[in-house]
Amino acid sequence: MLSKPDNGHHDTAGLLNFSWHKRVWLLAVPIILSNITVPLVGAVDTAIVGHLDEVELIGAVALGASIFSLVFWTFGFLRMGTSGMVAQASGAGDTSAIGSTVLRSLLLACILGVAVIALQLPLLSVCLQVFDGSARLDALTAQYYNIRIWSAPATFANYVVLGTLIGLQRTSAVFVFQLFLNLLNIALDLLFVPVLNWGISGVAAASVISEYAALIFSLFLIRSTLHEAVKDFRPQTLLRRYELRKLINLNTNIFVRTLLLVLSFFYFNSASTRLGATTLAANAILMQILHICAYALDGFAHAVETLAGHAQGSKRKTDFHNAVIVSTVQSCVIAIIMSALIYQFGVSLILLFTDQQDVIDNASRNLPWLIALPILSVWCYQLDGIFIGTTRTGEMRNAMVISAFIFVILSELLLPQLNNTALWLAFSLFMVLRAITLLLYFPRIQKALDANAA
């Protein structure tokens, strides 16, 4: 049943409305729990190799993971684009559009996955040249990369399934999926490395096997959506020119935005490499802790993403405003708690990752940056969710171009004088700039909502 548009004059006290707080919380908590398990895999990878003999192993896993953040998460538009379009179609009550979106996105995911495997050698060559690490570091990184690259088709298809589940507000299913994927990955890590002594190859193999097993499980989770899509399948509908053009335009903008974001993190690791193996290892550990915080805060971003998209599809302006206000307040509270926990237990967290004293000392010196970053970053996470849900992807692209450019330029200017301090200063400013640039575009969303609700 189609929802009626509103004019924004009822149910306005979202911040004081318990039902809205409950709604956002019930959507966010499963995402928070599932997202926390994602960087835990990276944390376990780092911790396992951190207790082996070579310090280069920590750096190799960090660089390998960074390459796959670039190669894989550059295609994160498969999740984000699917989520926004499915949420809007769900809000409009258009089940046919939901099915068509999912099938188009799965087809695109398979094509792109095969293409990435075909291009694996030139991709690795370019990445290693950018990092400019030691011969031993390059060899270990290549060993990891050459195995994990084969998970590309499954990883991309899983992005589509996650986007579908988030767009349909089935966040409990997202939690079940991520729990299955990441617990299996961790279990295989513990089997392949400490038990079977496969070293860094075991870490990569665990990721590949987990992704394909999770794909089978994820398709089962959306079986009803797939059934409806196949039942109503028409080749001409799937290949409709307007819909394909819309999908390509939306995904191209998110592709550029995500590529720049991932390149920024890639640059951070590359700059860390220039500062030496110890600094690279220390920064990798701090980034793992930050990723845990970021993935948790993303729970609220995903909640506002699906709620904003649903509100736009159903033309309910008040629902949009309530979702934005309530989710942002809740996420800010969690960010403050995270910063307090890092302040209190930061050094203990570092000790979980390594027992090498020079790495511990280096990471501890830069702990104040990590304490501040949850509070500095929460704003851009929330705005990302809002813009994805409303599919304002052109604005996301433009904002990231500005933020990434300033981050790299500032880092290069300050690195010779301030070394690692310059890197963390520029990175912190980068997160703030992401929020400021998106906020400048926010009135466009409000204007569009006013026009739809009229």
List the keywords.
454 residues; mainly alpha
Structure description:
By secondary structure, the protein is an all-alpha fold. The chain has one domain (14-453). 86% of the residues lie in helices and 0% in strands. The chain has helices spanning 18-50, 56-71, 77-91, 95-118, 120-131, 135-148, 152-167, 171-195, 200-221, 223-231, 235-238, 241-274, 277-314, 317-353, 357-365, 367-389, 393-418, 420-453. It is globular and about 60 Å long. The relative contact order is 0.14.
Give the secondary structure arrangement, pairings included.
Elements (H helix, E strand, L loop, with lengths): L17 H33 L5 H16 L5 H15 L3 H24 L1 H12 L3 H14 L3 H16 L3 H25 L4 H22 L1 H9 L3 H4 L2 H34 L2 H38 L2 H37 L3 H9 L1 H23 L3 H26 L1 H34 L1
Helix pairs in contact: 1-2, 1-8, 1-13, 1-14, 2-6, 2-12, 2-13, 3-4, 3-7, 3-12, 3-13, 4-7, 4-10, 6-9, 7-9, 8-9, 12-13, 12-17, 13-14, 13-15, 13-16, 14-16, 16-18, 17-18
Count of DSSP strands = 0
Oligomerization status of the protein chains: single chain
β-strand amount: under 5%
Which range best describes the helical content: under 10%, 10-25%, 25-40%, 40-55%, 55-70% or over 70%?
over 70%
Radius of gyration: 22 Å
The SSE order reads HHHHHHHHHHHHHHHHHH
Name the shape in a single word. globular
Class per helix and strand makeup:
mainly alpha
Q: Which residues sit in consecutive blocks of at least 5 with pLDDT less than 50?
A: 1-5, 7-12
Number of domains: 1
User: What is the arithmetic mean of pLDDT?
Assistant: 88
Largest sheet entry: none
Number of helices: 18
N-C termini distance? 20 Å
